[in-house]
Write a structure and sequence with these properties.
The complex is a heterodimer of chains A (about 325) and B (about 350).
Chain A: E1 19-20, H1 21-35, E2 39-43, H2 59-62, E3 67-69, H3 74-86, E4 90-94, H4 105-119, E5 125-131, H5 146-151, E6 156-158, H6 163-175, E7 179-185, E8 193-194, E9 208-211, E10 216-220, H7 224-236, E11 242-246, E12 249-251, H8 255-265, E13 268-271, H9 280-291, E14 301-303, H10 314-320, H11 324-336
Chain B: E1 3-5, H1 20-43, H2 58-67, E2 73-75, H3 81-87, H4 91-99, H5 131-145, E3 153-158, H6 165-176, E4 181-187, E5 190-191, E6 194-195, H7 208-212, E7 215-220, H8 224-239, E8 245-250, H9 268-271, H10 279-289, H11 293-315, H12 332-341
Parallel strand pairs in B: 1-7, 2-3, 3-4, 4-8, 7-8
Antiparallel strand pairs in B: 5-6
Helix pairs in contact in B: 1-2, 1-3, 1-11, 2-3, 2-8, 4-11, 5-6, 10-11
The chains are: A alpha/beta (about 325), B alpha/beta (about 350).
Chain lengths: ~325, ~350
């Protein structure tokens, strides 16, 4: 059990055992609230209750008036943040689940995202989306929304896969002058641990080579990074070296790092937990096919969830989304070409 | 929560600061003369995009804009030329949006009624109705957090906008936060062509104030001085901490939804009723009775000169150039380029 890092003083306390992905998100918000008086948090049950996932635990007590419970009004929550951002604040809106952000889509896509273009004035706000599937969560508590938000101009979309990125990227998101959709994966909340919060960060908007390889590139993001690494380990036993690239931020997309990797390996599998029609994995394949065609030794492939709503029962869910086993099969298919 | 109507109003606007008749009279005349001109420019093919006018709604709108002070927030809707001018939007900025000058605050990236100027506290509306309610609430939350006191936000809606989830969510949120927000609903009987009876089933939209836990004020939107009194009262109530105020003005729009629309669906009976009165005519008659018709005529001529001058000025201004346009929707897009180059 990780110790509550709230009040943690930046590393001098040697008794910290580990920091979870969720702790990192909570700590980043605490740091932002402490360092920047413009920051406030708005969302359902985020106040004294500390949020459905406890991502804001103890923050309301520590920062009175700056961690506010909202009504169940996703449209108005985002609309309120747009107004506050226009007025110079740095609001963080927590959606209880990414899925419910569909109710606030209009304010995010048509208002927050258009403000800089239309007015020349910034609209700096962060929309935190507890995203992705977990066993038993079903169709309305499992969605990955990055494709929809990325499609619209004017929004930065972040999809951190590690404890370190959850912390540093959330701080970046709060500092950026633009609306940021921060897709944090619920499956990583409690299980992903690190020894301490990071003191340095990978440069903003850069993808990261998680595991170097020379035979095939697997480009992915968020929780799928860990499935891809497990698949790479499986293939290593078969003699293949898989290079795993974590996009970290899906919009803007770091095409350079992806192309550089494909230049080394000549093969590509793009993996995403979201649905197969369009999306980040489709964008990766499209860019590599059009900008790096001559680098390829095999047709680039994609692997995504099945094209149905996300199932409730764990047996069905495990077959619905890409897993290490399915990614390994996909990698072998591209390698066999 | 008390629901007040214009006739029951006890408080009158403070005297000695501005003459309400001159202030509102000049404002609604400027709006009408400008909008008549916009209609002509539209028919002459000189307008970029559509033209949506507020004829018949000038008194309610203008009174709202005039009730605000510098430092307040105004989020108009599509029929609020008078409110904009009353709040202080320069007439040239309105024309820049319609004639496509790149010198306007939207630089040709957005136009007509979607214009605004955040540096002046005018929020540019998005087309999705009801959306501005929560956004103005957000500005007011921010001002409260910054310790900025005594500011009011006012936003406008039509009868149709009250049916949106966004309107409901926004007003409910503002009520929960007890924000100094005034929501002015111009109930003109039709949302585009859809009559009230296909829009809502309650007798009067004003009744909803009680449900939201906010103060409500009804007003005859065709009576300029009643609009002045009610809007000033509502804005003062908000300013003194009484929470959100819902103002419902009954009136008729004396034009189509846009200039492409002849509004032929508006019932004749309604047009010839009290509700179909032209607020400018009502004011002009009132001034005639007081022997002030020369003032009225003088203001009209001044407005005409101002409009002609503004049209001439804006017509000579440069249009947007796609080759000079900075095609970036985020500020951080520039940061990526810098980072990759370094």
């Amino acid at each position: 059990m990780a110790r509550d890092p709230i009040g943690w003083d930046g590393g001098s306390n040697g008794s910290i055992v580990s920091v979870t992905y969720l702790d990192a998100i909570r700590s980043a918000q605490e740091k932002a609230l402490r360092d920047d008086p413009r920051v406030f948090i708005y969302g359902q049950d985020v106040g004294r209750f500390g949020g459905a996932f406890k991502a804001t635990k103890n923050l309301a007590e520590r920062f009175p008036g700056r961690v506010m419970d909202s009504p169940i009004s996703e449209d108005a929550m985002v609309g309120m943040a747009v107004g506050a951002a226009m007025e110079g604040m740095r609001p963080i809106v927590e959606m209880q689940f990414a899925d419910f952000s569909t109710v606030g889509l209009n304010q995010m896509l048509n208002h927050a995202a258009t403000t800089f273009w239309r007015t020349g004035k910034p609209c700096p706000m962060v929309l935190r989306l507890p995203s992705g599937g977990t066993p038993g969560s079903g169709p309305f508590h499992s969605q990955s929304m990055e494709a929809i938000y990325s499609h619209y101009p004017g929004i930065v979309v972040m999809t951190p896969a590690t404890v370190e990125d959850a912390y540093t990227m959330l701080l970046e998101a709060i500092e950026l002058p633009d609306p940021v959709v921060f897709c944090e994966h619920k499956l990583l909340y409690y299980h992903l641990k690190s020894e301490a919060l990071p003191e340095s960060a990978v440069p903003a908007f850069r993808a990261r080579v998680v595991r170097a390889g020379r035979d095939i590139t697997c480009v992915t993001y968020s929780a799928m990074v860990h499935e891809a690494v497990a698949a790479a380990e499986e293939l290593a036993e078969e003699g293949y070296e898989v290079e795993v690239v974590d996009l970290r931020t899906v919009k803007p997309l770091d095409t350079d790092t992806v192309l550089a990797s494909v230049a080394r390996t000549g093969r590509l599998l793009a993996v995403g937990e979201s649905w197969p029609w369009g999306g980040a994995s489709a964008e990766v394949v499209a860019r590599v096919a059009s900008e790096g065609f001559e680098l390829l030794d095999a047709p680039p492939k994609r692997l995504n969830a099945k094209d149905t709503p996300i199932p409730y029962h764990p047996n069905l869910w495990a077959a619905h989304r890409p897993t290490a086993v399915r990614i390994a099969a996909g990698l072998r298919e591209v390698l066999r070409y | 929560m008390a629901i007040r109507v214009a006739g029951a109003l006890e408080s009158k606007p403070k005297k000695g600061v501005v003459d309400p008749i001159e202030s509102l009279g000049r404002t609604i005349l400027r709006a009408r003369v400008l909008e008549d001109k916009l209609g002509n420019l539209y028919r002459a093919g000189r307008i970029v995009g559509g033209v949506y006018l507020g004829k018949g709604q000038e008194a309610l709108s203008g009174a709202g804009g005039l009730a605000l002070r510098k430092g307040d927030i105004f989020a108009p809707l599509i029929r609020d030329m008078a409110g904009r001018l009353g709040f202080g939007e320069p007439m040239v900025d309105a024309l820049r949006a319609y004639l496509g000058s790149r010198l306007g605050p939207m630089k040709g990236r957005d136009g007509n009624i979607h214009r605004g100027d955040l540096t002046r506290g005018i929020l540019p509306m998005i087309s999705h109705l009801g959306a501005m309610v929560s956004t103005v609430a957000g500005v007011l939350v921010a001002k409260r957090m910054k310790g900025e006191k005594g500011r009011v936000g006012l936003t406008c809606a039509g009868d149709g906008a009250t049916s949106t989830g966004s309107f409901h969510e926004g007003l409910n949120l503002a009520a929960v936060e007890k924000l100094p927000l005034v929501v002015v609903v111009a109930d003109n009987g039709y949302a585009y062509s859809t009559p009230n009876e296909r829009q809502f089933a309650c007798e009067n939209l004003l009744d909803r104030a009680k449900g939201y836990g906010v103060e409500g004020h009804g007003v005859d939107g065709t009576d300029p001085m009643a609009c002045w009194r009610v809007l000033h009262h509502a804005v003062e109530r908000a300013r003194e901490g009484a929470g959100p105020q819902l103002v419902v003005g009954k009136l008729l729009r004396l034009c189509g939804h846009g200039e492409h629309d002849d509004g032929s669906y508006v019932e004749k009976k309604m047009k010839s009723s009290e509700r179909g009165r032209d607020c400018l005519k009502v004011m002009e008659e009132g001034m005639k009775k007081k022997g002030q018709e020369k003032d009225w005529q003088g203001w009209r001529e001044e407005a005409q000169r101002e409009v002609e001058d503004a049209v001439a000025k804006v017509s000579a201004e440069p249009v947007p150039d796609p080759f000079e346009e900075d095609w970036r929707a985020t500020q951080s897009a520039g940061m990526v380029e810098v980072m990759v180059a370094s």
